[in-house]
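Researcher: Going back to the complex we discussed earlier. I've cleaned up the inputs and rechecked each line, so this should be the final set. Can you rerun the prediction on the complete assembly and write out the structure?
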Amino acid sequence: MKELNTLIQDVFSKNRAEEIGYDVWKHFVIPPFFDLLDIHSARKPRAIIGGRGCGKTMLLRYLSHQSMFSPLRDNIPDKDLSHIGLYWRPDTQFCNAMIKREVREDTWAGSFNHYVAIIVGLEVIRSLRSIANSSFPKINEGDINNLNFDRLTFFNPDLPNTFDELHNHLEGSLWEFESWVNDVRKKREPNFLPGKEFILALITIIKSQLSSLNNAIFFVYIDEFENLCEYQQQIINTWLKHSEVPLIFNLAMKRGSFENKKTLGQEFLADIHDLRKHDIEDYVLDNNFEVFAAEILFLTLSMANIDFQLPFDVNDMRDPNKISNRSTPDYRKNVLTVALNLFPQMSNKELAHQVFNDETLLNKLKDRLKKALDYRDSDISVDNFLRRDFPEASIITPALLYRKRVYPSDIIDELNTLEKGEHNRFTGRTGWIHNNFIACILQLYAPYSRSCPFYSGFQTFCSLSKGNLRHFLELCHKSLSKIPISIKHLPLNVDPGKQAEAARQASAAFLGEVRSFGKYGNQLHAFVLRLGSLFALSHQRLTLSENEQSHFTITKGFKQLDELDYDFINEAIKWSVLSMHTTTKKKDITQPEDIEYILNPIYAPYFYITYRKKRRLELSSDDFITLIRGNIDQFSELMKQYRRKWFVEADSLALPIFSILDEEPEC
Amino acid sequence: MLINMQEGLSESNISFTNHDIAFVGEVLDRRGERAVEYIKSISNSLLQLDYDENEFTLNVDGTIINAERFDDYINSFKGKSIALETTTLGFVEIFYCCKALFDNKFPKVTLLYLEPLEYKRSSRSQIMHRHDFDLSEEFAGFRAIPGATIMLSDRYSQRGVFLLGFEERRLDRALEDYQMIQTSKSAVVFGVPAFKAGWEMNSFANNIRVIRDKKLRGGVHFCGANNPLSTLELLNKCYNTLNTDERMFISPIGTKPSGIGTILFVLEHSDVGILYDHPKQKSERSSEISKWHMFEVDF
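Model: Rerun complete. Updated structure for the full complex:
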């Protein structure tokens, strides 16, 4: 046994890129899709797209000079100069002050140019400092201190000519600029620098004096592009359209928010011609997310000196040249085995046994059986349906009993044939267990607000996080926090029940965050509560004929969605509350595409609903409108309608998960 | 700057002299209605103010003016006594009034504020979410206020001070939208004593998740929810502990009196910025009136 020398509960204290700082080299796991970004040969601007938590900021920081030329990195090759990343996340509330206010539009355009010139100019200077302080042998402090910037005085005669003085001067200009934006009427307007031209001149001057930078290319990554003002976006789009070596402008933004593609001229940005889109969320999900997530987990643990005696080298995860080593079946199997041992998952049989071993759950099952038999006017004893050796089958029998086409005696016959090992409808092609088991388990747990171990296991955590690394790490963090502090030795594993508790806590916490999601935060929060409650209600259907519904389509109703409703849907997608999926109706490819909306699975444990994409719910536009903007009475009425339609027991709406219905009418 | 504060259970407990001009905001509830009625009774002229954060303009009784020109407008009242009805006026309106009076060297301003007896609870479950309150519609989002604008950056040392109220989403959104805010250095301020004994628990319970999740570690402070002077003193203390290379910004997302304290502080510290989210307040957000306050500020 190996002793832990770090409190495992503290390992994930920093799980956001912003907390780590700009140099993320040590923390960054080269993602399996890294080669798709074509960092060293592509010259076309990139649009990096992804929602919160998908690792976009971490990637952008990794691509930046602070990480690429990190002092922690040995042996930096020449080719890394072909991508010197300059990351800028604009302060959008400040940028939004650069409009109107009785200032001419061309003055604001000039001021934004000036702002970018200073910010990116400073970043160019800092990048040289990073390179000089790194292990890259061809540039040192002396080289950059000898640089002469005399030619910059063409832009402004006050600009100094030495490296340090220029750095200080630009910083001073930034404060001067802030002061002017704050009080445009009384403060003197600064002598505006032209944005792109100034940066290009700065780079040209540097390259002309440092021959080792001959092939250097500077890539500016502008984050949160979607939150800039329209004219500011147009200026950047113009630079992006005309980007060429050695200065390439790139964008980063949330999904569904690349709306403004106008340039300052007549042209628009064209997706393939002018830039290459990289949807990080898609890349993460489509490229062995489970292995990638496990690698991030193990690198984090190893950095906290928690050695899992892993059968692989975590240092390989930091090396772009080792991606292929990490894609072999053996490597993947090794990584997943360790992860599955740390967060074990319960099989369906184990979940079923747990019900039989838990008096409360067993009583609930008996109660459900009794009610179902009463409903069918059957006098068969409940005990005939409880087969301890076949708990999975026993657990689904109440749902089967409510189905009119199946007689209680048929179910007994099928249970008997199952026991005899003969062909039966529980395990045979009819797949009663396969189709109904999880839904029945969730029905048993929901009334007691107990954590359901269905939400445990490493693979489940991957499904719940659906490409969101922040969600994944939080699930791991909350689970590991439940290991008793007294446990100080490896090997470690977290009890599935504790994992499920952690999942429910994380789910509730992430649900709470929704209120901070942009302009419709409160409305989005109410929508998730309502939609989650509706899915929870569908999970309470007695027959479970359409079970595990967790996504929906919108069908035609009396009312039509208006522009604001579509804007709301876009916001829900932008903030990853919903994801969108288009499908062609399989039976007829000439039919129009259906759009399916999937509730983020991280909210599933809160509502005791499935995180699996199984069956969809068809919501009329009227019902959908009620979910997004109906008042509480309309929503309560909607729930009652569905309760009747879905054949849900009347008292189900009194369950704690439906507490949203206890609301008072709005004033 | 001197602040003379009076409080009482009704208007008869405070001595509010007649004023030439009083600025008021939109009436949203009975409390606002009462406050405006009262100030109208002791003022020769009443003017309604409304700030538009998208246009950076003030609507003064139907006339739209650039908010940054409000000091020119106020200058025409030179020599007259001015009162602000701050129960109904929004934070930004109070800011521009005070700034214009201060910049134009008016000797003083009097502010009236009526505390609520109860705030409107959220329509969500009382059992599961008993700390929820329904005070604001959606927020416009954090938008700069010309005259108190700051450029947020994680490149330079900045210390944020968040004056908190009941609605934790305001703090959450600030930190979600502006991830360059250096949370390790940002302080939070709770209004304690609260308007009413026990109300501080609403602020604690609601904000604690955000403070913990977003790792705000720059200190926890307390100052009276209805006491602008204590806010002013606290902000002075925070300011005095700044390192030479540090900047400070304040996010007044708590009670109105704490917002008034913020404004008075910023008037004297032009290097300090304000981060504000411009909530659209709900009608009937409070019921009944608790204490009456008069803050007489001697510039």
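Model: Worth noting: Chain A has four domains: 33-286, 289-342+454-511, 348-448, 519-662.
Researcher: Good, that matches what I expected from the previous run.
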